[in-house]
């Protein structure tokens, strides 16, 4: 009973305590807290969902980048393999190209150096000779003796007279020049046909070249197409000359680095600076604000200097001196009171390093030939080496060898034909180049005087072949067979052969005119020679024909 009563009381007390009306304030906030908790849980769930989406995107981006890197690595590997294959083919192609080029050069050199030495090759040529009556050796010998030797006997006296006067004139030129500011002029050198003894056309003209150099401390630094300097193909065979101080780099001028002083002249910028009062030169010969020596400026300076020198010594001579050609710096003419005259060329040149190759400002050439690219470009002349080569080879030839006779006859025929039909692209220099090639190719014994007719025909056939191919290579440039005794610069021997007939490739009208003139000359050969030949009895001619060549 007491236990039951206790249980009933405990239940009643518990019910009373848990009744909501007993604690209204405490239990009234339960629903509000629950809503806030639910709201926060929703917000947390949303943020977790957004974070999950962000992480998924980052994982997807990383996977995409990984795939991209893997693809790039595959592409690089493939490109490396392709490059290796391409490099292999490139190297193989270059090797094949070099082998072909070496073979071409060897074949080319063998052809153009040895063409004149093969009688069979010569027989294949000469298509233009068909139907042409060529004079025999008796007529040719008579023509050469009566027409050429008979009119060239006074060349030695003329050379001696001109050289003596030129030396006196240059000595006077040195005396009127300012040694501290003007160009230094050296002794003249005789070159060309008058000094190689094959000049035939009158008036006889002596060609003298005069080397000159700048005053100290300046120097000339030549540049050529075969010395590694950049030159376009149409400027091969030419060169430029830079004026600079001996201790300065050629790429800059020292006038803006050093105070020159009031009495000093900048060679490169003379137009912008005041010239020294004691100097006789207003301009030191450079081309349009550059360091390159200008051929036109050199021409003006040299003409002025020669005029002053002549004014100083004219009282010693009983003749007058004048310039015969306005476009040539040293084309001079001596006029005697008797009315006779002597012409000679005194041309300024610049020496190439320590050789006898010279840069020449103006060069005798055909009226149809190419002009210089600009007045900053200079011709190169190998005339001194050409004269030495002829002298060297002449020592190995038979007595009274016919090489000079052949060149004289060919030059005479060409000159007469040009006087009838007008100038052509051929010059006497081309004719001499043909002779030089044949001198090197033909055995020495084949140049005896009795071989005059055969060798002259060889020269004409060789020239015909060159005209047909539009190729006549310079004798020295690219010729590895030049005798070592000449001391010829190796840089020109190793250069690519220079085609003297390049003009014919570029100008078809000039080529056609030249070929027509050559063929007309062949047709007129007998008539021209017979016109200037003393009559030879027919029986004597037939007897000579039976002799073997």
Describe the fold and architecture.
- It is a single chain.
- The chain is α+β, with helices and mostly antiparallel strands.
- The protein has a domain at 123-248 and 279-534: Beta Polymerase, domain 2.
- 50% of the residues lie in helices and 11% in strands.
- The chain contains 16 helices and 10 strands.
- Strand 7 (331-336) and strand 8 form a beta hairpin.
- It is elongated.
Order of helices and strands: HHHHHHEEHEEEHEEEEEHHHHHHHH
Structure summary, number of beta strands: 10
Largest sheet: 10 strands, mixed
Gap between N and C termini: 174 Å
Q: Could you tell me the radius of gyration in angstroms?
A: 46 Å
Strand content: 5-15%
Which architecture of the domain at 123-248 and 279-534 would the CATH scheme give at its second level? 2-Layer Sandwich
Number of helices: 16
Overall geometric form: elongated
Helix content: 40-55%
Q: Low-confidence runs (pLDDT<50, min 5 residues)?
A: 25-31, 108-125, 250-254, 256-263, 268-283, 365-369, 535-549
CATH topology of the domain at 123-248 and 279-534: Beta Polymerase, domain 2
**According to CATH, what is the class of the domain at 123-248 and 279-534?**
Alpha Beta
The chain-level structural class is: alpha+beta
- The chain-level mean pLDDT equals 78
């Amino acid at each position: 009973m007491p236990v039951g009563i206790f249980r009933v009381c405990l239940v009643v007390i518990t019910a009373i305590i848990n009744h909501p009306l007993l604690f209204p304030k405490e239990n009234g906030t339960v629903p509000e807290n629950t809503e806030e908790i639910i709201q926060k849980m929703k917000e947390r769930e949303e943020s977790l969902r957004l974070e999950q989406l962000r992480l998924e995107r980052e994982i997807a981006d990383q996977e995409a980048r990984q795939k991209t890197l893997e693809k790039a690595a595959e592409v690089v590997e493939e490109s490396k393999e392709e490059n290796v294959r391409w490099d292999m083919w490139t190297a193989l192609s270059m090797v094949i190209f070099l082998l072909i080029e070496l073979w071409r050069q060897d074949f080319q050199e063998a052809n153009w150096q040895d063409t004149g030495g093969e009688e069979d090759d010569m027989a294949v040529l000469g298509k233009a000779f068909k139907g042409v009556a060529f004079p025999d050796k008796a007529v040719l010998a008579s023509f050469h003796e009566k027409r050429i030797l008979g009119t060239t006997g006074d060349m030695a006296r003329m050379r001696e007279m001109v050289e003596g006067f030129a030396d006196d004139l240059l000595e006077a030129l040195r005396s009127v020049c300012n040694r501290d500011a003007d160009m230094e002029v050296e002794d003249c050198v005789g070159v060309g046909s008058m000094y190689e003894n094959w000049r035939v056309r009158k008036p006889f003209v002596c060609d003298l070249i005069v080397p000159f150099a700048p005053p100290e401390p300046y120097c000339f630094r030549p540049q050529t197409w075969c010395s590694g300097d950049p030159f376009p193909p149409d400027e091969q065979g030419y060169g430029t000359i830079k004026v600079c101080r001996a201790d300065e780099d050629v790429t800059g001028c020292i006038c803006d680095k050093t105070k020159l002083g009031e009495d000093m002249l900048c060679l490169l910028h003379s137009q912008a600076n005041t010239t020294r009062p004691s100097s006789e030169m207003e301009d030191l010969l450079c081309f349009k604000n550059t360091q390159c020596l200008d051929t036109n400026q050199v021409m003006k300076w040299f003409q002025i200097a020669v005029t002053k020198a002549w004014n100083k010594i004219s009282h010693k001579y009983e003749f007058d001196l004048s310039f015969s050609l306005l476009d040539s710096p040293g084309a001079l003419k001596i006029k005697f009171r008797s009315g006779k005259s002597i012409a000679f060329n005194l041309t300024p040149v610049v020496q190439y390093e320590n050789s006898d190759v010279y840069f020449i400002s103006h060069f005798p050439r055909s009226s149809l030939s190419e002009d210089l690219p600009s007045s900053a470009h200079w011709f190169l002349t190998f005339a001194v080496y050409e004269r030495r080569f002829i002298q060297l080879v002449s020592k190995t030839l038979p007595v009274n060898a016919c090489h000079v006779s052949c060149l004289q006859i060919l030059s005479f025929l060409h000159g007469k034909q040009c006087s009838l039909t007008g100038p052509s692209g051929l010059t006497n220099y081309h004719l001499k180049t043909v002779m030089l090639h044949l001198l090197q190719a033909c055995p020495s014994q084949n140049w005896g005087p009795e071989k005059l007719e055969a060798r002259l025909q060889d020269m004409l056939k060789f020239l015909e072949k060159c005209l047909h191919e539009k190729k006549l290579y310079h004798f020295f440039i690219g010729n590895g067979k030049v005798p070592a005794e000449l001391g010829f610069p190796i840089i020109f021997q190793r250069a690519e052969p220079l085609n003297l007939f390049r003009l014919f490739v570029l100008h078809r009208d000039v080529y056609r005119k030249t070929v027509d003139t050559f063929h007309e000359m062949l047709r007129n050969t007998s008539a021209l020679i017979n016109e200037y030949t003393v009559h030879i009895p027919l029986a004597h001619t037939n007897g000579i024909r039976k002799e073997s060549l």
